[in-house]
Amino acid sequence: MQTLGRLKESPSQTAGPYVHIGCVPNFSGIPGVYPEDLGTSLCTKDAKGTHITVKGTVYDGTGTALKDALIEVWQADANGIYSAGDPRGPADPNFTGWGRSPGDYDTGEWVFDTVKPGRVPMHDGRLMAPHISLWVVARGINLGLQTRMYFPDEEAANAEDPILARIEHKNRVPTLIAKAEGDGIYRFDIRLQGDDETIFFDV
Amino acid sequence: MNSPMAHNRPPEGGSLFPRDREWHPPAYFEQYKTSIARSPKRAPISFPSTLSEETGPVFTTDILGPLDNDLILNFGEPGEMAIGQRIIVHGRVLDQDGRGQPGLLVEFWQANAGGRYRHKKEGYMAPLDPNFGGCGRTITDSDGRYVFRTVKPGPYPWPNRVNDWRPAHIHFSVFGRAWGQRLITQMYFEGDPLIWTCPIVDTIPDRAAIEQLIAPLDLDATIPMDSRAYKFDIVIRGRRGTWFENRKEGV
Ligand SMILES: [Fe+3]
User: Fold this and answer.
1) N or C: which end of chain A has fewer CB within 10 A?
2) How far is CA A34 from CA A28, A160, B80, B86, B145, in A?
3) What is the pLDDT of residue B14?
4) Which of B19, B24, B99, B171 is catalytic?
């Protein structure tokens, strides 16, 4: 019999304690190699849509804030179009939708200024609720963690979101919903362990 | 915006192959103590990839400076070079069907030749090299190839068990075209005995998977009287063809 001959994906290894050297060297105290760190903004002020701020902290199983994590986000523009690879494009030219943050050096809190994403369809046409995809790496995390942030003021859309609908333990769904703090600020804390462990996705 | 992106790229393909989580390290690994409090305990929720996972940021070569892939020179004072064994690291980024993946951002970081990182939280007594920063990046060419020049990093001790040493290694961050292909891993060097004593390496369950991260010495790519070379291919998740995928657009 022939073999499929497919390669195995390279196995993941932890990003380690010094991921900031590689991914945000200016932040980590290595200036001058690159003019600026990548991913410090997702859009310009001219981007269409509702401008919002998303912030959060990653906590370990003891409730301690991670100060050595790297957070990346990826989201659609206000019309629900991704800035690259989207067959329905083009997206808003003032919007990339990709951000990267090491968090605050002292508190670990990360902040992204962006616009509220529009709804994106599944391949079968059903609409997902507005969401931001997040990827978390750090020392002690052996494979980058994928999750999504949904919006608390999108109850109707959330109720028909096909991904949220897959979650059997409905009492865990709130771990994916940000908290509104007013003035367009949303808080999305991520808990790696514990009773309110954030839902992570295998996608 | 500081990450120029192409806005009109055609989609690269269909749904992502499911990730073989048996091939990757588990979240919890007792001998790697930091993982104990940082490992989710509940099963991740699986679903077939959507546009949110099948799209991803694209980086173009105009973000690159001429020394971005030369760690011997990119932090050095003019006329100075980093100290250490000069090496070239090269390889390809492939998908699981073995196709070279063009136009992908690859970032790398490492300790200096003495095993010391340039970082505030680094406590190892080995000296900093004033001409070595430890970071670099490049974008794969039309065949998925990448190359950079550096000094071979030293092994270093780290606080875990009483006497744990990391084998010499270089950290890699790779973007695919799809958010679901995002990967961070590490490259090890052929013949390093510390590979087989390291609890971080040991988080990977399968020896064949560990071997996938060990770069062989590549004498043919060596520059005589200048630099040795190591070859390191990276495989990112594959995608199904779109031939029979009926994509409705919108509702
Ligand atoms: Fe390291």
Assistant:
1) N
2) 12, 44, 18, 22, 22
3) 81
4) B171
